[in-house]
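User: For my dataset I need records formatted as: sequence, then structure tokens, nothing else. Please produce one.
Assistant:
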Amino acid sequence: MNMAAYCTVSDLIDRMPEEDIIALSNDDETPTINNSRVTAAISDASEFIDGFLRGVYDLPLATVPVIIKGLCISLVIYKLYLRRFAGDSEGIPETVAENNKMARADLISIQRGIIKLDTGNANTDQGMFLTDKNGMEEFADSILNKF
């Protein structure tokens, strides 16, 4: 499986204070980001995103669209907060929880084709469209008029 990471630790630092990332990822007293925890959260979020893109876009994406990077960052931040608060969503700031919900809703919209990514590698073979090839009616008008 060719899975790409849709954001980096630097992207997270651009979005929130580094001290917050340290507090969310590191359980000891050292004032450093626990890169393995953050990288694992990025990997999990990226795979989650791929689950929505699979079958709609050819993976891995040739380039990471800005929207996908932003969605990944939101999912990672939520995941880090969830880890810090041991799965208790009560400790998660409302804006972080709302961004997570919006990211998931956007992924559903991308999957359904409501939001289209400019990647150049959309999968156009997604299902079939069936038509009546012989031109005959399936149901006579006398039957259809009863409804």
